């Protein structure tokens, strides 16, 4: 297997990413919201929660999904609270990233 084409492709992709840096504050905010919603939805789905992606998004952004079982809403809200606390600890310098 010739690895050179793969290495060239990696270098090209890195150059594209570097051109886009730094991200604007709005882009960072959008990415954060996207990943928070997606990871919450995926985590809940793996545990058998029946909330769909739209219900998860509404619940995380407004805390008002009326169609879901109370247990599922609480589970989703608890993940939201835990992520907020983790973010506060990181911004206070109490948690190292990647550990």
List the keywords.
0% strand; elongated; mainly alpha; 99 residues
Describe the structure.
With 99 residues, the protein is mostly helical. It has a domain at 23-91. Helices cover 71% and strands 0% of the residues. Helix 2 packs across helix 3 (53-62) and helix 2 (25-46) packs across helix 4. The mean pLDDT is 80.
What structural class is derived from the secondary structure elements? mainly alpha
Distance between the terminal alpha carbons, to the nearest Å? 35 Å
What radius of gyration results from the CA coordinates?
Answer: 18 Å
Averaged pLDDT, please?
80
β-strand amount: under 5%
Gross morphology: elongated
Helix content: over 70%
Topology:
Layout (H helix, E strand, L loop, with lengths): L3 H16 L5 H22 L6 H10 L7 H22 L8
Helix pairs in contact: 2-3, 2-4
């Amino acid at each position: 297997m010739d690895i050179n084409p793969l290495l060239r492709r990696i270098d090209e992709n890195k150059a594209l990413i570097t051109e886009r840096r730094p991200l604007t504050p709005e882009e960072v905010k959008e990415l954060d919201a996207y990943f928070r919603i997606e990871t919450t939805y995926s985590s809940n789905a793996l545990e058998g929660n029946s909330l769909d992606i739209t219900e998860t998004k509404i619940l995380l952004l407004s805390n008002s999904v009326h169609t879901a079982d109370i247990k599922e809403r609480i589970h989703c809200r608890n993940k939201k609270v835990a992520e907020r606390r983790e973010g506060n600890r990181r911004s206070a310098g109490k948690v190292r990233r990647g550990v």
